[in-house]
From TrEMBL, chains A, B, C, D:
The keyword Oxidoreductase applies. The keyword NAD applies. Transmembrane segments: none annotated. It comes from Christiangramia antarctica. Pfam families: NAD_binding_11 (PF14833), NAD_binding_2 (PF03446). Residues 2-161 form the 6-phosphogluconate dehydrogenase NADP-binding domain. This is NAD(P)-dependent oxidoreductase. Keywords: NAD, Oxidoreductase. SUPFAM superfamilies: 6-phosphogluconate dehydrogenase C-terminal domain-like, NAD(P)-binding Rossmann-fold domains. It comes from the Bacteria. One of its GO terms (molecular function) is oxidoreductase activity. Residues 164-283 form the 3-hydroxyisobutyrate dehydrogenase-like NAD-binding domain. Its EC number is 1.1.-.-.
Length: 288, 288, 288, 288
């Protein structure tokens, strides 16, 4: 199976590496070529353009920053959709809004290309350790045909329904992630102001069932004021934006998520865009 | 040990009953006397007034609806603080704001009465099954002197610090509770609009670590549209109000909690005050 | 000058009629043909499609519901951009986001068609009475070439800058409109709960300089519980959405506008989409 | 008529001076004595304590920072309510919540003292120029008995109803003030990001009826980045807090006001508490 891979950021580079380790031959593309160095040293081929990356592959993965980036590389005269073989499969693992996935599915179909949205649950470390969970929208039989690939990169790939349904579930999960950390941050921040110490606040809250378990992983960030990016704040804010945008499209109110999106947006505006998203604690806590 | 107990609502009645089952003799008071019937049949004494309930007891528990109710029964010429013996102990298990607990501690002290704030984590069922967690503010030695009482009503009593610190931790927990359900509700509600079915949404979200485990208990509410009150929505909204009010007092921003408080407030205004707090899902979902 | 006009809703029908009264010959198109009846009786020509409406006209106006509707009728193989003559002028008076106007300007340019965004300030009555204010983005000389047309429909056409700048100013104005009514509604609603009567609340507030003068026009809505649509709530909510979306695109926080958007969104979800936008008062006030 | 005056901040000092200019003899008190210097030089008497200020006066004015400050100086064994003569009149011009005014009215009554809440609309300059508008709650005949005093300090004193109704109207006005500036700031801030210049944004918005006229006074703040306090941001945030707190007390949703309160709260937390409240523009605009 010939595989193309576009997008070698924090997530994509690790996913591609696991495919490579699993024995697959990759043709890779990334805006900044240097991020492909390690993959190339280990035998991957460099595709000089998105178009080239999509040419003569059986499966093309994309792992890009936002819907705009996906559309730019996919569509248009030099887009990879014009390069891909009939009946080949495009798997988009970027986090996008479901209506965007549906639109891509439909454009792919016009080009006789199969499409799956397969965003992931899990960030840097699960990506490195092949522990990702893939949330898949598209044809069940298409998913079954590439399970061996998902097995190299993750622990499971769950079929959520038709095209767009993987993206749907993904933005639901990231909405909860964003809310969890922010609600926890407000709680700890007020706790400290009420005279409790930071450690006690976190210890007690993490023992109660009202706190999302994932915070066990992130608490060290807050403990140590360490906001080196694992999952950049601007990306989490983008996901909250996709959630509220989808709410608007479908006429569904999302008052809490909009509020959360704006708090992350303020933090982003105050120079925290490229810190880890857990820096929202720092935003609330800092006096300047 | 002679024990007074004021406030026999959903929580207080069950707590008092567990003390009674544990062999303690109680003198009880409640605004609506009928709620004391079972306790009286099983041997409790009726105190005709809060003043009477506080008279000649070693320990007085209060489990009331809000700070206003506590202040009304405690202070003033006919309040129980004027009735209690020197050096006796008042334990307030109501959910109140920390500065209120501190003020009550100080008024109690002027009357030579010891004070502890000991709000609980857990609602109707844990109260019935003596599985509550007490979050205690006050003197450690005072807590140690009544551990046997807490043991009858709960699984643990944790010393959080000086007076007010129990209340501090309590409003932190309930803030997370309120946010968790609301964020989950927004997620499931949008998921359904995106074409996923309700059960799938909840199944998948509850398997991921971004969802607070307590939602496993509450999901049946949403599954079954069953909002018979266990923890009334108006009480949860009150707790969010106490959290934001404390934020204001201490100059700490609480943007997400204020947003959540207002969503519950809208639900309360639309005739849902006395439904279970999980009815916030219904509020978001209903078209009228 | 031959003029095409697409979009004959509350606003468009009145604008077109004023052009007609001013002596211009129109070719008109609307999804629902019956809305064109009066214009046709008075001499307008029916264009069977958007394509037809754009053919052989010097100027084409569009007044549509949202960016999606504009894009659908403009672009694509059967879109009016494929029908319009070289160097003819497309004037989009729809309320859209500035980046959308910029994109349309650029697509028009590729087709050698001139473009102006010229959204209006003013609703039903000013449209009928030719009292609209046009906020224009595009080439100054293009604006000057069609001032006679704007004069028939409005009191002024102000050049705001390059393409997109008219749309920019428009969403700023409608954001303030939406906020003004909502803030005023919250104030009056609380005033009534505090024991003041509705009329006193409105009389006093309207005498103070903190209240936007436009509310003098809308207060009768609230006085009389009359929410027959003049400017439908769903359209105002769309404009707030365009504002927050543009904020997201440009990295600018819009916390208050997001909150307002969600309140209107809740009202929309509760069956008020097609009422006048001032029904947000009713949403806050109703108990069910 | 003997007059006491407590509270000589930005507002109180100017109001007292106008009474003095009008020929009234004042007994004054302020926490920081130096602020009374000018009044004392011009003939006022220094009252060493709030108690002293209330003794043997016919009318006592208070103009204090918040309800807590009023309660502290009024009630308690050394409070001025214990010093005031029977049937004398206490006029509280502080901005407080209506339920607080009602409570003060009732405590005053127990002491056989008449009470009026008479907060003002207008800030520093109108205070200096005797152009304030008094919003009065209490007995109409009490208001009529002191119209000559209000005439020295303001342009009008309007009877709003029973005790508390002046405070009710006041928080409604300040809620609109806070929202107006914040909504305007979001608009101008986004306008600049969309490529319009600051001056154009403000010029155009101020010409439209969606903008509150009071912004004409404040725009120079934003033009000149001049946030020297006229009406400190922390005081405006307090007023929004009083508004939302009253909403909570009465079961009225205030979603937009809560959002506004939190934005000002974030600005307050970021070292802007003592700047003018118009600095909320700076908060939104600054990148750090």
């Amino acid at each position: 199976m010939k595989i193309g891979f576009i997008g070698l950021g924090i997530m994509g580079s690790r996913m591609a590496e696991n495919l490579q380790k699993g024995g697959y031959q990759l043709k890779v593309y990334n805006r900044t070529k240097s991020k492909a160095d390690r993959l190339l040293e280990n035998g991957a081929t460099w595709a000089g353009s998105p178009f080239e990356a999509g040419k003569n592959v059986d499966v093309l993965f994309t792992m890009l920053e936002n819907p705009g980036a996906v559309e730019e590389l996919a569509c248009g005269p030099k887009g990879f959709l014009n390069a891909m073989n009939e009946n080949s499969l495009w798997i988009d693992s970027s986090t996008v809004n479901p209506s965007f996935s549906e639109r891509m599915a439909s454009i792919a179909k016009e080009n006789n290309i199969r499409f799956m949205d397969a965003p992931v649950s899990g960030s840097k470390q699960p990506a490195a350790e092949a522990e990702l969970l893939f949330l898949v929208g598209g044809e069940k039989k298409d998913l079954d045909s590439v399970r061996s690939l998902f097995d190299k990169m993750g622990k499971d790939a769950v079929h959520m329904g038709a095209a767009g349904k993987g993206s749907a579930m993904k933005i639901m999960i990231n909405q909860l992630l964003g809310q969890s950390i922010l609600a926890f941050s407000e709680s700890v921040n007020l706790g400290m102001a009420m005279g409790l110490d930071k450690k006690t606040c976190m210890d007690v809250l993490l023992k109660t069932p009202v706190t999302a378990p994932i915070i066990n992983i992130y608490r060290s960030r807050i403990d140590n004021n360490d906001y080196e990016p694992n999952f950049p704040l601007k990306h989490l804010q983008k996901d909250l934006h996709l959630f509220t945008e989808t709410g608007y499209e479908l006429g569904i109110p999302t008052p809490l998520t909009s509020a959360a999106k704006e708090v992350y947006g303020l933090a982003k505006h105050k120079n925290m865009a490229d810190l880890d998203f857990t820096a929202v604690f720092k935003f609330l806590n800092d006096k300047n």
